[in-house]
Fold each of these.
Amino acid sequence: MPLGPRPADVPRIRKTLTVYKVSSYITGFFLIALVVMMVTRYGLNGDIELGGPEGFLALTPKEDVTGINVSTIILVMHGWFYVLYLACDFVLWRLLRFSFTRFLFIALGGVIPFLSFYFEQTVPRFVEHRLAEVESQEVPA
């Protein structure tokens, strides 16, 4: 049997692709926010604080944060959305049966800034192309 998606998996692939598109945008947004947060934390020696004594939004040393620590929220949110992004990548890899190298390459989208936005455009095209091949090979009963 040739490698590639099975016709029975097409609906699951389409659902996963929809979640993948959304998660790639959200992961990309939080990754950019994470870069900004790391610049403020390690370059300016301050976490982003919301609603603290310094005003609505301020850079405060990590140990002096009394309000909401936005830097920590950014870290946690990016982490969880990256897990969702990886899960979608894994499901697409498993159902489409593409190479493990492609899986790893797509996984970099949540680690390298702006790459997830690029993959949000290219991965669906690749998947749709593969699905079109499968659907054209189906023989009507």
Amino acid sequence: MTAIAKFCRNLTNAKWFELAIIAVIITNSVLIGIETYKTNATIHLIQQIILGIFTFEIIARFIARDSIKSFFKSGWNIFDLSLVLISYIPESLFESSSTIMVIRVLRVFRVLRLLRTSGEIKLIIAVLTKSFSALFYNGIFFFIFVYLFAIVGVSIFKLPDYNSLTPEKQAAYNMLMEETPPTPPCSPDPYGTLGESMFTLFRALTGEDWTDLRYNLVKANEYGFINVSSTIITSFHVIWFVLAAFLLLNLVVGAIVNNYQVIMEESRRKQQKREKELEQQT
């Protein structure tokens, strides 16, 4: 190992250097927030200095690496390197305002460097990363039920097209809208299309006015615009809410909790292994 590599390794492993970088990251995050209100030459200068510090840090970590493969094997190194490189892209190269906006948004993602400032946060990221596979299959399972219930919702709860109604029915429809206005007023028929029906079910999952959906449909049944009993309307929405809120969401939580335990066990084993290696060396 060369003297420069040894110096960089000692520097990047030093506690004071880590704390200094954390302070720079926090300062950068605060300034990014301030820039949403105003900016000036001083803020721009400080941001350029911070970019220089980030560049020095990533170069130092690259020099201190065990190997090029080990450096790029770390997702954090790739993440930091990508943010630094994006920050050097000049906006003057692009004429499209949408492209410039994308570049600015990507630079804002430097705030995410705060995620690496704590071991606990890194543990949470590791848990989420490990949970992606389980979450993907849980998502497919969830989508199947949303799709199924959405089709049922469109089939039995869809209100008729206003323009296709007779004048008498149109008058009754207007009375229905006055008595049970949609929430918000600009919203369409909650079960008018498959896409809107799926969004309605997602809204019900969050607990947002899902009981209003039931009451509005019961009133629509009284006016004769849907031919479904109040028992079926109530059963449909209660079954969906219980299934989605208590079963499907708990599957996601269970997958994350399980992987959290796995990661904790792996972390504990690695810590014990390092302690044994240190004991053997002494």
Amino acid sequence: MEIWRQKGSSWEDVKHANVAVVLSAIRRFGPISRTELAELTDLTSGTITNVTSRLLELGLISEAGQTASRGGRKRVLLKLREEACVAIGIEISRQHVFGVLANLNGKVVSRAEEATEPGEGPVRTIARVVQMIDRFKEEAAGLECPVIGAGIGVPGPVKTDEGIVTTPPNFPGWRWIRLKDQVESRSGLDVLIDDDARTAALGEAWFGAGRDVESLVYMSVGTGIGAGVVVEGRLYQGAHGLAGQIGHASVDPFGARCECGNVGCLELFASSPGIVQLARKRLQEGEPSVLHEYEKAGDLTINRICESAEAGDLVAASVMETACTYLGTGVANVINVYDPQKIVLGGSLVRAYEMLVDRVRAIARERSFAHGGETPQIVRSQLGKEASALGAVALVLERFFADPLAAMSKAQVGEASKS
């Protein structure tokens, strides 16, 4: 992957840019010597010496032994001090608030989860988020680590620049909520907001199944269906911040109307609520199934349907096959539109139904346009339920590594203001 170096318009800009380039190189390729850094970044040996000295002073890097001698002087190796700072990542879903405290390499230091009440609305949920952030800040203080910010993944659409949750379907009360401003004002941290599927995509790109590719599409399949698109290691937002809304692509132009206003959306057929509705319709047709007992007991859930399908119940298996066919078709459309190197499937439904990825992979390959017989890899998420929260951490780290000097200065000002 090419190291990109920004040309600043002033000496101060150049200094900040050089520090960013060197620290990013150490993070990705360390342990690494100063000589190798100069070759990799095309900076002079003098500049490398000055920059690495500053990074050592800030505590962002440390020495990591020496290279073996080949007749000359041994070279000192440098590595990222991953414990130097921490970031907070939060996922707001329709069922819970889940958060992580992670270091500069995305290693999770602490986790927290709190269930939300059905339809509780943004006021209570935001209070939960702020309380969780406060707990993480206390833990960071105990570790003597500055917190460099918080990221939040939330059901979209989201206006990322303004940090506004606009009109997420099936999320009562969440209409034009200024989430960034509310959390920043109450937590005292800089906050970054994005669609939860996009943060999950970034999490997989930084720390999970997408670390070996430049482009991927992450598809989250659960209560809703969303996607995040990563191109050249960066999230693709689209002109209006709507890239990746695959759940609201119409797969049946004569289908039922979705809450989003469209008709025949993929979410209606392949999300967890859509699958439960399809199962109820099949049960009304009178076919014998263990699902009748769950329906009578008021316990017909997506997990019950998945378990029954895997146990061989014919109705449950047929319902899941229908959902996989729709989802596989949606994945094929994603392949045809974005042509990524990899598709990563995640979300609660993927975790609940073991056979889903294999079936979707087969259907997508049948229905996608393949160049020279090649199709993208279609794989399961490596990060599981932590994908969106870790991607929210990656939002913060992305900003941090773009300008470490500014970030550390702000963090130190923040620490000083508390003392």
Amino acid sequence: MKTTRRGFVKTLSLGTAMGMLGQSMVLNKATAQSRAAHASGVFDNGVMQLNQNESARGPGEKVLETIRQYTSKRVGRGYSPDHVNELRDALADYYGLNRDGVLLATGSTPLLEGAVHAFCSRGKPLVTATPTYATSANTARRHGIPVVDVVLDDSLSIDLEAMINASTGAGLVYFCNPNNPSGTVHGPAAVENFVRRIMAASPATRILIDEAYINYADPALMQSALPLVKEFPNVFITRSFSKAHGIAGLRVGYGLGHADTLDAIDRAWGMGDVNMLGAIAALTAFEDTAHLEWERQENAEIRAMVTGAFRDMGFMVPESQTNHLFVNLRRPAREFRTACLERNILVGRDFPPMENTHSRISLGSREEMSKAIEVFRSVLT
């Protein structure tokens, strides 16, 4: 049969329409399955997520209720989002800072990236521990900025003395306290000595103290470095609502520091736009101190249970003050990760230079970790 131009177009249109219909049916099916999974409380295709250090319990009920209350047609007018200034003011008031001493961001990642762009160069290296949270180091390496790696000490704590010695002339020192992945902390006296010595020897160097996990730490063992931030313009803190506050999916983080330092970070790299639901959720979570304390205590009890299980199996686990453990399994993390995933548990990625011995395991709920311990036993013994 001869195919006319009109016939070809009609056939093409029908084929395109059928293709679009098929895609729509697939998408609708996937959406329905996703909604059904969320409604039943089953997520991630049944794989237990012990790899991202998120809160297994999520936010408190006050936060969830606030999100429901503020989810309205108003979200259609979010280019100048509500509650963002309110959140910034609340943080400034709580920490005793001027409003320009708080910089909001979509999580802490833009702050860490921005600090490298603002303060480091080929002649001003980044000094960081290893292993530690790698965003700052990865950012520097992508842009050809030298990175000085300081290996953790034998207790898997950040080697402050070596960091001090490496910091002269550095553009930025990245100090994660509590440290990710090791979970170890340094107390206020050690942190103060660390900051004062770097500032005395290299006053132009900036010091970024990442306190993302501080809400999980025992207050008797560590405290915020905020007094040092107020004393030294070149010292600043980053924090996140993604961990103990339980709203990682809403992407809210913040920096605390001198206005000139925060402004330099903001000008060097985009912080993203905190949205209105994220802002009101973060504000509610920040004010819900009772839930935050419950989350800390619940995590501490689960952490003790899992730590004890690994030690009973004969494995070394440093004292963690976070919602994750860094276990010396005496085997490559990749092998452990593969074996666990075959049993529907996903644990952390490699952390060089310790990827052939240690694995990071995020802490889930009590129920999750009770099941996970049995899997770990079957894999490791």
